[in-house]
Each structure stands twice: as structure tokens, then as C-alpha cells.
Design goal:
The complex is a heterodimer of chains A (278) and B (389). Chain A has eleven helices and ten strands. By secondary structure, chain A is of the alpha/beta class. Chain A has an eight-stranded mixed β-sheet with strand order 2-1-3-4-8-7-10-9, with helices on both faces. In chain A, helix 4 packs across helix 5 and helix 5 crosses helix 6. The longest helix of chain A is centred in the N-terminal third of the chain and has 15 residues. Chain A is globular and about 65 Å long. Chain B is α/β, with parallel strands linked by helices and 389 residues long. Chain B has twelve helices and 17 strands. In chain B, the strands form three sheets. In chain B, strands 3, 4, 5, 6, 7, 8, 9 and 15 form an eight-stranded mixed β-sheet that branches. Classes of the chains: A alpha/beta (278), B alpha/beta (389). Strand 2 of chain A pairs parallel with strand 11 of chain B.
Chain lengths: 278, 389
């Protein structure tokens, strides 16, 4: 059996929930491929993985994978995941969200999960738009772009999910694109191995909504845009600021060691029992 | 204070009497019920529950976490419960409003969880340190969509202890969030209570599947209407969603799957109605005038009944500890017995409306409504009894 068929049979609910809801050409499928390959490399047992997702196109991912899956309310995936992880620290918790889900409605949960250093991996598919509801602007829609709720032009400024994660305290932050599928896979694998709050931002495209409204072409052309605008972190270090103006960095943005919340909380348990002094 | 007495010759029984606040009794009850996870956000008048559990839970290898808001608090509680740990949160009106988003999730995904709402005056920020009973209807209907719910309401510190344990038991037994509505008076009032021995406390736990994982249908109908619940990480990989789902837990939009699912959620409670009704008839057997009360108002009502009886007025009281599902049978009994029924409440008439709804012309129903952040006194109730009887 081909390698990909084995992966599909092992990790996807292929006999139950397909065909999926995503548009032909959507980047989420590439991201899902990278996700199951990365999980396969880590060798986790499917029973010990909890995949939590929010609402939106990306949020739908949880229904297709054969783990303990939890499809939560909009923006709240990280809060549910926090409860799962602290109640059963032995489980590997992976949270999959879209950009609106993670940093608009769920923005507060995102920065606080990072600050607490809850031991889980947050994978955020950033396609710059609310796709499922039909193409409204999100916090990552660039200035000057069109959406169905910025019909004239977006006058808000977007922010960078990865930089937000770095500032909020995530111990691992990686950014990839769905064009760079192999990089994505390796970033996810690194994130899974990291103890603490790890983030993988996946730059993706929504040709159906965002691309159409902004005349950016087909899925293929939008992926070519990703190729042309992504710069590896190592290469970016040797480039001048003006050369990086319209570019974004991909690769490992941060990798640092800080004690995870559940290990810190173990101290609280020992203090509470008088086994140790604070 | 500990006082020893001779009981079983095999074991020295220790009778524990404690002077506790209502909120502290909730903590004692929760720990005995097996609560090992609490997520909350500071708010008056519920903060004592958080403070005490932050000390007590780590001592018993449980987890306390202060979240960034009440939406997150209930989210974490649901997550922990899905992972198999009995979980609780506590809040007051403004936080309770935020929790309704995830309350609906816990209802549709059938996740056992306990939510304490120490009621303060509203709407909005309202009266942070004054009592109210303004959240009775919010507790029933606050989250969107048609749904069943269990709401319990203590009027003494001992009831705070007992009903917290009941809340956990019901939530585990029926796979439903249970709301414990305490008014600020009962939450902050101190009374001496005797804590029962552990062996005298009934503790219920969720029923787990006994079939092998490949046979497990996570949201299958059962005679009780409550499907067995597998915890995350125990070999039963299944999907939990806030979307309307089929028996396997996967989203559905098929009318023939939606209808039996939503009806089952209601049937879980309706076919076990008798199990859910907690209340007390006090001198109602021969009463000409009956008071239907709950929370701190039931305390004033009891005193009013005793005083009226001393003056020769045949008064009685029905105390409601279960607010939802509404104790229709008991209320109908009182309406049938007494010619006059008075419903005093610290709101504009949320339970009196229900009493009027079930009244078939048997009795005249009168109300006393206080919304100024003060309690309803026995004198007020006595005055009303005299006025209308």
C-alpha cells in the first residue's frame, strides 16, 4: 500500500466523514496532510491524542481525524484544551484554529494560554479571511484589501499571529505556508516534541473568498504568491529591512525552554501538602 | 470543632461540626462529591469559593486555575470533565451571562459540569454586594436554543453543602450541566452545620461504556435516555461537538436524526422528574394560605408561617430547592389546598409567573416583589398574608 494510503487509513475517519467540506484547492487539506505525517513521525498512540478545534473552515478538521476529537465553541478551543490537558496531563493536546477563531474572538484565550505556558500545540491556519461565513475581513486581513465587509477597502491594520505568540510567551513559534508543505511538517513535528505552549502558524489561501474579491487568481496562483513572499528565517537574517518589506519569515521564529504550567502546578501541590516550602 | 461520640464499636465515628459560610459549604460539598478541577474568574459574591478551592484542591491532587474570563472558565471545566475529572466553576450574574455560550455546549454535548451562580442585583454590573433572585429565568433560558436544564437553590448553609453534592450527582447521572443558584445572603451567611460521614453521603459517577471501543456509539439512546460516557484517553476515540449531531457524535442536518436527539435531551429529565424534585412542605396540610418561596426568602417565609400560626392564621409554606425543572406537582398540591398562595421573590416575579401558569383557578396567587437589594423580611410576608387572607 502506498504510504499516503496507509496514513489515510490509519489517521482519517475515511469511511465515516468524507467527502469533506473544504473547497477544491483549499490549503487546509495540505495542512491536514502535514499534520498527520508529523503525528505519524512522533509515534504517538491515537488514543493519547486529543485534537481540539474551534469554529470555521479550519475548525471542521476535527471531525475527519481519528483521535479523541473536540469541536468547541467559536474562539474557545484553547480554553477547552486547557481543561483537558490539566485534568489528564498524559494526553497530547493539539489545537487547530483559523485566524479569526484564534486571534479575533479567541485572542484573549490565545495570549493567556501562551502566557501560562500550557503544554499544547496550537496550529493556526491563517488565510486572512472568514471563509465559512462568506469572506468577511479578519484581524489578519491586510490593510487595503477587500472583503465582503470591507467592500471599499480595509482601513484596519492586521497583526502578525506569530509575533503575538512570541510576545505572549510561547516557547516555540514556527511559521510555514501550505506551499512549503515539507517545512510545515517539520515545524509541526518540532512543536509536538516541545514541552510547553507551541504555535505553528500556517499561511494559507482562500481563493474562493479572499482571492476572488482581491483578484488574486486561482489557488495555484495564490500559492505562487506564498512562494514569492516567504523568506526563510536564516536568509532573512542576511537581508536588509527594505528588502523584507513585503515579505514574511518562515521557519522557526522562537525556540526556548520554560517550565510548562502542569510542572509548575506540581510545585503548588507539593507546597499545599507541606512537602516543600515555597 | 470536633466532637467525638461512640458509634460503631469497630470504628470511632467523628462528628464534624463546622461554622461555615454558604460559599464555604459549597467548597466542602464539592470536595466530598469528588470535584477535582475548578476554573474560575474573581467576582463578588462568589470569590470565596475560588479562594478556598485554590488552597484545598492541590492538597487532594486536584487542579485550580484562574482563567482569563468566565467563558474560558466554563470551557476549561468542560474540557476537564471530558477528560474524566469532576469539575466546577463559580460566578455571579455578569460572569454567568458570559458562561451561557459554553453552557449550551455542555448541554448539547452532554458534559457533566457544575456552575455555581451567587446571585447579585442586576441587570449588568448591578449591585455587586447585594442579594437578588433575578437570575432564575436566565438560569432556565439564558443560553440560546431549546434545552433542558437542572437548577437547584439552597436556603441554608447545610443545603449549600447537600445541594452541591446533589448537583454533581445529577450532572454525572444525567450528563447535563447543573446550576446551583445561591443568593448573596445564603452565600455569605454563616451557620453551624454537621458534616455527614463520608459513608453517609451518596456519590454518583458517570456510567462508562462496557462495550469494546469499536461497538461504542457515544450518543446512542438508552432506556434511561443517558448514553454511557467514555473519557478522553481511555481508548474510546469519538467526536464531541457543539453542532447538532447524530448518535455517533458527527454533525448532522437530517431532520430524522435531529428530532430524536433533541427530544432525548428533554426526555433525560422528563422521565426522571420525580428524582429531580427537592423541596419541603411546611405546615401546608391544613393551610388556608400558603407561601411558595426559595433561597433566603424561604427563611423569612418559614418564620412568617410560625408567627401566623401563633396568631391563629392557618399558614403554610412550600420551599422549592429545585427551581428547574419546575416542581409542578408539589405546587399544584399547595394550590389545591390553600385558597390563597403568596409568592415572595427578590425579583419582579419569575417563579410567581410559573405558579400562576400551573394554577387552574384553584387559588388566588399574590406576589411580593423586592428589587432594591434588600431582603424580604418575615414582617413583610406576615403583612401580606393578613392583607389577602
Amino acid at each position: 500500500m502506498a504510504e499516503v494510503t496507509k496514513l489515510i487509513h490509519n489517521y482519517l475517519r475515511h469511511d465515516k466523514k468524507f467527502p469533506h467540506v473544504w473547497c477544491p484547492g483549499c490549503g487546509i487539506g495540505i495542512m491536514l496532510g502535514a499534520l498527520i505525517r508529523a503525528i505519524d513521525h512522533t509515534g504517538y498512540n491515537k488514543d493519547e491524542i486529543v485534537l481540539v478545534s474551534g469554529i470555521g473552515c479550519t475548525g471542521r478538521l476535527s471531525v475527519y481525524v481519528d483521535f479523541n476529537t473536540l469541536h468547541t465553541t467559536h474562539g474557545r478551543a484553547l480554553t477547552f484544551a486547557t481543561g483537558v490537558k490539566l485534568a489528564r496531563p498524559g494526553l497530547k493536546v493539539i489545537v487547530v484554529m483559523g485566524d479569526g477563531d484564534a486571534v479575533a474572538i479567541g485572542g484573549n484565550h490565545f495570549i493567556h494560554a501562551a502566557r501560562r505556558n500550557i503544554d499544547l500545540t496550537a496550529i493556526i491556519v491563517n488565510n486572512s479571511v472568514y471563509g465559512m461565513t462568506g469572506g468577511q475581513y479578519s484581524p489578519t486581513t491586510p490593510y487595503g484589501m477587500r472583503s465582503t465587509t470591507t467592500a471599499y477597502s480595509n482601513v484596519e491594520h492586521s497583526f502578525s499571529i506569530s509575533e503575538l505568540a512570541v510576545t505572549a510567551g510561547a516557547v516555540f513559534v514556527g511559521r510555514g505556508t501550505v506551499y512549503h508543505a515539507k517545512l510545515l511538517e517539520s515545524l509541526m513535528e518540532k512543536a509536538f516534541h516541545k514541552v510547553g505552549f507551541s504555535v505553528v502558524e500556517v499561511i494559507s489561501h482562500c481563493h474562493t473568498q479572499f482571492g476572488r474579491l482581491n483578484r488574486m487568481g486561482s489557488a495555484v496562483e495564490m500559492m505562487q504568491w506564498q512562494r514569492d513572499h516567504a523568506v526563510a528565517v536564516e536568509k532573512a537574517a542576511q537581508m536588509k529591512d527594505e528588502e523584507l518589506k513585503d515579505k514574511f519569515k518562515i521557519g522557526v521564529l522562537v525556540d526556548r525552554d520554560l517550565p510548562a504550567y502542569q510542572d509548575e502546578y506540581e510545585k503548588v501541590r507539593r507546597w499545599s501538602k507541606g512537602l516543600e516550602k515555597e | 470543632m470536633k466532637r467525638e461520640r461512640q458509634g460503631s464499636p469497630l470504628k470511632k465515628r467523628v462528628r464534624k461540626e463546622l461554622l461555615l459560610q454558604g460559599n464555604e459549604a459549597v467548597v466542602e460539598g464539592a470536595l466530598r462529591a469528588g470535584c477535582r478541577f475548578f476554573a474560575g474568574y474573581p467576582i463578588t459574591p462568589a470569590t470565596e469559593i475560588s479562594e478556598q478551592l485554590s488552597v484545598r484542591l492541590p492538597q487532594v491532587d486536584g487542579t485550580f486555575i484562574q482563567m482569563e474570563d468566565e467563558i474560558a472558565s466554563l470551557g476549561a471545566v468542560i474540557g476537564a470533565s471530558l477528560a474524566g475529572v469532576k469539575s466546577m466553576t463559580a460566578t455571579s450574574g455578569p460572569g454567568f451571562s458570559r458562561m451561557h455560550e459554553n453552557l449550551g455546549f455542555a448541554i448539547i454535548a452532554e458534559v457533566p459540569s457544575v456552575i455555581v451562580n451567587a446571585m447579585r442585583g442586576g441587570p449588568s454590573t448591578g449591585l455587586p454586594t447585594s442579594p437578588s433572585q433575578g437570575d432564575v429565568m436566565q438560569a432556565r433560558w439564558g443560553t440560546h436554543g431549546d434545552h433542558p436544564i437542572i437548577v437547584l437553590c439552597p436556603s441554608t448553609v447545610r443545603e449549600c453543602f447537600d445541594l452541591t453534592i446533589k448537583s454533581f450527582n445529577y450532572s454525572e447521572k444525567y450528563r447535563i450541566p447543573v446550576i446551583l443558584l445561591i443568593d448573596e445572603v445564603v452565600a455569605h451567611m454563616r451557620e453551624k452545620i454537621a458534616i455527614p460521614d463520608d459513608e453517609d453521603i451518596e456519590i454518583l459517577n458517570r456510567v462508562k461504556p462496557t462495550v469494546p471501543p469499536e461497538w461504542y456509539i457515544p450518543f446512542e439512546d438508552t432506556p434511561r435516555g443517558v448514553p454511557p460516557m467514555a473519557n478522553f484517553g481511555e481508548g474510546y476515540r469519538y467526536h464531541v461537538t457543539g453542532l447538532t449531531h447524530d448518535v455517533r457524535g458527527f454533525p448532522t442536518s437530517r431532520p430524522d436524526e435531529i428530532d430524536p436527539f433533541i427530544r432525548r435531551l428533554f426526555r433525560k429529565l422528563s422521565q426522571n422528574f420525580a428524582d429531580l424534585q427537592i423541596g419541603e412542605f411546611f405546615k401546608t396540610d391544613d393551610a388556608d394560605v400558603a407561601v411558595v418561596a426559595y433561597g433566603c426568602v424561604a427563611r423569612s417565609a418559614k418564620r412568617a408561617v410560625v408567627d401566623c400560626r401563633e396568631r391563629g392564621i392557618k399558614a403554610g409554606m412550600l420551599k422549592l430547592n429545585t427551581l428547574w425543572p419546575f416542581m409542578r406537582g408539589q405546587v399544584e398540591k399547595v394550590l389545591g389546598q390553600a385558597k390563597v398562595v403568596i409568592v415572595p421573590e427578590m425579583n419582579m416575579g419569575q417563579i410567581s409567573r410559573e405558579v400562576k401558569r400551573v394554577n387552574k383557578g384553584d387559588a388566588k396567587v399574590f406576589t411580593i416583589n423586592r428589587i432594591d437589594g434588600s431582603i424580604i423580611t418575615p414582617q413583610e410576608i406576615i403583612g401580606r398574608i393578613k392583607e389577602v387572607s
